[in-house]
Here is the input.
Amino acid sequence: MNDNKVFLYTISTCSHCKSTKKLLNDLDVSYESVEVDLLKGEERQKTIEDIKKINPRCSFPTICIDYQVIVGFHENQIKEALGIE
Here is the structure.
C-alpha cells in the first residue's frame, strides 16, 4: 500500500493508458483516473483545460504522482516517482 496521491488522465482505447493502469494495479497502487474521451460537453472541455496546464501537448496518459507529472507510459519513471525500486 502506498501513500502517494496518483491521478491519471487517459483515453479509453489507448494501449499506453491501459499499460499504465495495469502497472499500477500490479504494484497494488491506488489511483483515480478519468477517461477523457468518454466525457461530454463542459466537463470534457474543463478537463482538457486542466490537462493543458500540466501537459501543454495534452497527450495521454498524463500521470500525476503527488506533484510530479509523467507523460506517457514510462515504467521506470512511474516506479521512481512512487518510491518503488
The domain at 6-82 is CATH 3.40.30.10 (Glutaredoxin). The two ends are 14 Å apart (CA to CA). The chain has a mean pLDDT of 95. The first helix runs from residue 15 to 26.
